[in-house]
């Protein structure tokens, strides 16, 4: 567990209600855990331990197992994500066309490493697997916006749009 | 149904959506409305056309005019000129479709499409994937009807066996045999499943089928379920493919409404329904037993085989698992017969294969060709060759499990057995082209970084072994390697191949073994000469200024972040290699191309 004493995460009433709805929806489904985690992460943005405990009680799977599943899959995160989630594609097509350099440039501009979130909570950075836009390689995404056919010099201008 | 004077097909695949096709559709609809043409011109959002590099793409029928790289600003001009005045906007037409006498030819006559044969992708870019009626109009669900009303399950299996279809997910196992094993396995409850967890970085053919023709998967899974005696189906699909998930869900709903999923399909005793399960980003889940463990809600770790999924699969019940592209061939085989399918391809690899062609090539995109087509045809005739006049160095197939095909083997006919024989593999069909600027040691390192990251950790050879391989590769690319390291690398590769638990670990050394086989001199250059011939590995690169070309403008010195460049104005400058951090800023700053690696 984290060595820093972070305050416990508390869900808002609205979040709690939505999470319970998800649990009710999947309670009797075979292999419910992963769909539940997907939908709960959609509601809260990430999956802190406190939320994993709620899921555990709801669907009757031990927290240890839930933690194991959450940390196994890259889609799930136990850390909060930034307001703008940057994902740099490191699929083969993008890599061959220089996405490694794009990633370095982004790191340099926003000052964080892969898997981290800026202190103001604005940006988080991920190196993603192939997003399937290989025709536009190299690409990176900011939330749902996709930027393709990039050269390193494009990066600054694109990120400036989110700096406000 | 309303009749429209013209149909505008706009690609709504992931590639074109990423390059802004939604904005094109919005602009188009607004502009048509403004000119009161909305009832005359119908806008259809289709799946992938394949030519992703030219996106956003739109095609206007009946003429078949192909507009590429369209922007929203171009739309009013297209509507005004083309739809109102009947004059094609030549400026925006894909130049390959323009004939010498200023006419416009059909897309099918263009090099990119002319040499292709579309079976799995037959409906992609042709129909609206969110409308079941359009699928039915293209013979959709005819094969399911035929199978349920005219054929016995064993007859269906025999037909698939006879067709010679092999699994398109990578290993190339006989599809008919797989169906037979599942059908023969004892048990009341059986499942069919589809592997749509396209994890090979650089492959996106499955996504295109899901986005462009989702009903073909549903229909094929229903046929498979009938053949093996299952009544429930699961599609394990990547969460990274939101458009595919949405369209498949719409398609399943529509199929239920039309009675093509559910109870007593076509008035027979056969009942079948299916659901989606989202993957969560783990490459190992492409391995069949890991995929099933994941559907069951656990960490996606592989299980021992045997028992094979055909005997004990999902929840220990007999389960048939095929990949998307494999299923996409099924209805075509049923409709046209195994004998037809048999005439396409090579002796042991029948039919076609879809390749996602990417990397250093002009026409990146999806290409479907008969088995036995040579790599040269794919790269040069269809792919349009290598950009910027560079030399073809190698093509990588099979992703992190595959290997390289070097330039001297470019005339190899591509099929399962030929690729395996030269040390690569078909894999799911990613085909990444590399030119002289690609370092083969760096590429091997790239794939090993991937497998180290994706190793599930269950078995030691894969968990620890791949990490050791990567460490040696890092040492080599940093210029600290020795010749013994190369031997050690090779030895460890074979040890991992022999001892890893599942396919991921067993194939993880392939990118190293195949680059060692064909590009050993590059490894040796890294360790003996301490040079990276392609100029990629930063630690081994040194920048120098050509005194002949240098005009002494001082731009490089002013841009250097560490003050490593010095000199006098109007005299050649020099780089202090001890201070240089090899960032490459000087090279891109120089206007006279005087700085090189």
Q: Mind explaining what this structure looks like?
A:
The complex is a heterodimer of chains A (164) and B (597). Chain A is an alpha+beta fold. Chain A has two domains: 13-72; 84-163, 3-Layer(aba) Sandwich (Glutaredoxin), CATH 3.40.30.10. Helices cover 45% and strands 11% of the residues of chain A. Chain A contains seven helices and four strands, in the order ααααβααβββα. Chain A has helices at residues 13-26, 33-44, 49-59, 63-72, 92-96, 99-110, 154-163, and strands at 84-89, 123-128, 140-142, 145-147. Chain A has a four-stranded mixed beta sheet, covered by helices on one side. In chain A, a hairpin with a 2-residue loop joins β3 (140-142) and β4. In chain A, α1 runs antiparallel to α2. The longest helix of chain A has 14 residues, at 13-26. Chain A is elongated, with a radius of gyration of 18 Å. Chain A starts with 12 loop residues before the first helix and ends with a helix. Chain B is an alpha/beta fold and 597 residues long. Chain B folds into five domains: 6-110, Glutaredoxin (3-Layer(aba) Sandwich), CATH 3.40.30.10; 132-342, Rossmann fold (3-Layer(aba) Sandwich), CATH 3.40.50.11540; 352-435, Ubiquitin-like (UB roll) (Roll), CATH 3.10.20.600; 440-527, Up-down Bundle (de novo design (two linked rop proteins)), CATH 1.20.1440.230; 542-596, Alpha-Beta Plaits. Chain B is 39% helix and 13% strand. In chain B, the strands form five sheets. A five-stranded mixed beta sheet of chain B has the order 10-9-13-11-12, with helices on both faces. A four-stranded mixed beta sheet of chain B has the order 2-1-3-4, with helices on one face. In chain B, strands 7-6-5-8 form a four-stranded parallel beta sheet, sandwiched between helices. In chain B, α7 (153-163) packs across α10 (214-228), α9 (205-212) packs across α10 and α9 (205-212) crosses α11 (242-257). The mean pLDDT of chain B is 94. The chains are: A alpha+beta (164), B alpha/beta (597).
